[in-house]
Design brief:
381 residues; mainly alpha; Serine Threonine Protein Phosphatase 5, Tetratricopeptide repeat; two-stranded antiparallel ribbon; BROX; BRO1_dom; Apoptosis-linked gene 2-interacting protein X 1; BRO1_sf
């Protein structure tokens, strides 16, 4: 059972920050910590901007032997985030100081968007960078990237390690939930037009729901391996669709925060939902057929195909996966229709007589626990 690939959220870029050039340290220890913070960020900058000259062997050695690029990137982020958290903790204590406000404005925190609506134009012109004079913008975008790479690692291992993959998807969901509830709401609404979609609570909420849908989709594959009943599988697949129905509700809400979201994200959520609705109805039809309700099974498969045919995505890789599913349902329907014609002779109900699908959502986010290195920082103010 194939998943729809969507690596876009991890395609962020950023511009260089040198913390020790902006913040005036009062002692050598603080200066060294600022330099360490800049160093840890620099390796992230070089990785996501594709400017690193480090060989694969050195990258593996620097990450303690990790061979996966996604794992190496997660290692880099896990080293940077606690240092950034410590800086934010100390800046919060002196946030009203004019000198501190001036320093933060000079950081020039700049990130591009991977989910913005103008990406097709920007591919020709180069990435557009958003700048906010708010240290939590740096935290928010770094956490968004962390969640996206957790999700990439989960996708990478899903063919061979279903349980671990589902756990990583749930961890990514927890990162986005933390972002939407704890970090991004602190941004003032005055910044609405200056922020990339990734720095909004609404898009973080959509990503949380996508990751939960991912986790449940992987969990279903485990349930299929264990020969779960077709009735249960139908409910689990529709549970995936329910997560995505909720995500669609946010995207189509008309909220100011989602007005600049890329149409590609809309299409991905719609295609992901369509795929699992189709799979749900296929299992539901099998369940009803086993109960002798052949006419109802045929009605459900016909309705499923009609619905899926209206939502064929433009992205080729998604279209091929959904087309393969449609072909399987079409084959099952043709077989049932032949049997009904020669054996059962059951009446086929109209679409408004068909049962409403029922879903079961069995996954939840693993709460993100932010780490902070408790080191003293003293500034000249």
């Amino acid at each position: 059972m194939m998943m729809l690939p969507f690596p876009d959220p991890a395609k962020l870029k950023t511009r260089k920050i040198v913390f020790e050039d902006v913040f005036a340290a009062l002692d050598p220890c603080t200066l060294e910590q600022l330099k360490e913070l800049s160093s840890k960020r620099r390796v992230i900058e070089e990785t996501i901007n594709d400017t690193s000259s480090i060989t694969e062997a050195i990258a593996r050695e620097m990450s303690g032997g990790l061979t996966s690029k996604a794992e190496q990137d997660l290692h880099k982020l896990k080293e940077y985030l606690p240092l950034l958290g410590n800086l934010i903790f100390h800046l919060d204590a002196i946030s009203r100081n004019r000198q501190v406000i001036h320093w933060i404005s000079n950081l020039r925190i700049q990130w591009s968007s991977a989910l913005g609506s103008s990406l097709s134009l920007l591919n020709l012109m180069g990435a557009k960078y958003f700048q906010l004079n708010n240290i939590r913008f740096e935290l928010g975008m770094t956490l968004f990237l962390y969640g996206a790479i957790l999700r990439e690692r989960a996708c990478e291992i899903s063919p061979v390690a279903l349980v671990q993959s589902a756990t990583l998807f749930r961890e990514a969901a927890g990162v986005y939930l933390y972002l939407s509830q704890e970090v991004l709401p602190s941004f003032h609404s005055a910044n609405a037009g200056q922020k990339p979609p990734e720095a909004t609570s609404s898009v973080a909420s959509v990503m949380n729901l996508i990751c939960l849908a991912d986790a449940q989709a992987v969990t279903i594959r485990k349930a299929e391996e264990k020969k779960a009943t077709v009735g249960l599988l139908a409910k689990l697949h529709y549970g995936v669709a329910e997560f995505l129905i909720e995500a669609s509700g946010i995207l189509y809400s008309g909220n100011e925060e989602v007005k600049d979201v890329s149409p590609r994200l809309f299409e991905y959520v719609s295609s992901f939902k369509s795929l699992h609705e189709l799979r749900s109805k296929r299992y539901l039809a099998q369940d009803l057929q086993a109960l002798g309700q052949v006419g109802l099974s045929i009605g459900i498969l016909r309705e499923a195909l009609n619905s899926a045919a209206k939502k064929i995505p433009g992205e080729e890789s998604w279209r091929l996966i959904i087309k393969e599913e449609i072909d399987g349902v079409s084959e099952a329907l043709a077989k049932l229709e032949r049997e009904n014609e020669f054996v059962w002779h059951e009446k086929i109900p109209s679409s408004d007589e068909l049962p409403l699908p029922q879903g079961s959502k069995i996954v939840s986010a693993i709460p993100y626990q932010p780490m902070r290195y408790e080191r003293q920082l003293v500034f000249k103010i």
